[in-house]
Write a structure and sequence with these properties.
By secondary structure, the chain is of the alpha/beta class. The chain is built from 14 helices and eleven strands. The chain has a five-stranded parallel β-sheet. Helix 1 (about 1-15) crosses helix 3 (about 50-60) and helix 10 (about 215-230) packs across helix 11 (about 240-255).
Length: about 300
């Protein structure tokens, strides 16, 4: 627990050299990494989605790769392919073979390429010509989506979105944060990030998450929250059992990051939107009325009493 807390403090301090604000968002992404999940990152262009991913990788000394998804991208462009070298076939690894992989605009690529990525995420390995290649550890995919551009995209299905442990929305910076970005622009462009943690620190934290105690009443609280999303009048499909698992593990990871040995109700509340909002499918009429899945989670948290 002490190691994970130190890792977080060092990473967030170092990442702040290029990221203004967004500390809670950064914490959720780190929690997802510790919980061995993957992240959907949503936000309009220019709100530092790529910078956040790169800053986490650089400060934790993790290998980082970025892939721009486009309609003509092939599955082999992600996973890798066989090439001939010195008269023999040799596997050339794709960009998926990194500790943190940023997939920019995941909904731009064809469903076939999306499926190849999601399969690698789920299995944590790639199979080419009958040979299986394990992906590195730790392994985190951060997939970005632009919420405003709907033309020329291939939306992920509900089942595919459910594969992501968390969804983090990156909002516009406020007035003061914008001024700070402008004042620190020259410093940020020099990329003043150094490695303040190691791969071993992250791997250790991934093991220590299981030492975080979760009272049975907290588990009932999680179950009640998930069940309430299914019974909400404006919801067509509520959160899946995988959503309950995500809520539990993200809560554990958050407690671990903050140096606590047990999960508290506030931990569950803080990660609820990230764990559940992308798993909720609204009724068509609710969308017309301006409902959002984030609003559903907010109201569910108000209705379900904590232990």
């Amino acid at each position: 627990m002490e190691i994970a807390e130190t890792v977080y403090q060092k990473i967030v301090e170092e990442a702040s050299n290029v990221i203004v604000g967004k500390k809670e968002e950064l914490k959720i992404i780190l929690a997802t990494l510790i919980a061995k999940g993957h992240v959907l990152l949503e936000g309009v262009p220019g709100v530092a989605k790529t910078t956040i991913a790169k800053a986490i990788a650089s400060s934790a000394d993790l290998e980082f790769k970025r892939v721009q998804f486009t309609p003509d991208l092939l599955p082999s462009d992600i996973t890798g392919t066989m090439i001939i070298e010195n008269g023999k076939f040799k596997f050339r690894k794709g960009p998926i073979f990194a500790n943190i992989v940023l997939v920019d605009e995941i909904n731009r690529a064809s469903p076939k390429t999306q499926a190849a990525l999601l399969e690698a995420m789920q299995e944590e390995q790639v199979t080419i010509w009958g040979e299986t290649y394990k992906l590195p550890e730790p392994f985190l995919v951060i997939a970005t989506m632009n919420p405003v551009e709907l033309e020329g995209v291939y939306p992920l299905s509900e089942a595919q979105v459910d594969r992501f442990m968390s969804k983090v929305i990156i909002e516009y910076p406020n007035r003061d944060e914008t001024v700070e970005i402008l004042e620190r622009l020259k410093e940020m462009e020099k990329w003043p990030i150094k490695a303040v943690a190691t791969k071993e620190n992250i791997l250790k934290a991934q093991e220590e998450i299981w030492n975080i105690y979760v009272d049975k009443n907290i588990k009932y609280y999680i179950a009640d929250i998930v069940d309430a999303t299914r019974r909400y009048s404006e919801v067509r499909l509520g959160a899946s059992p995988r959503g309950a698992i995500a809520l539990l593990q993200l809560s554990r990871a958050l407690a671990l990051i903050e140096g606590r040995s047990n999960v508290e109700p506030d931990d569950v509340k803080r990660v609820a939107k990230a764990a559940l909002s992308h798993r909720i499918v609204l009724k068509p009429e609710a969308k017309i009325e301006g409902f959002t899945s984030e609003r559903v989670v907010e109201e569910v948290l108000e209705r379900v009493p904590p232990p």
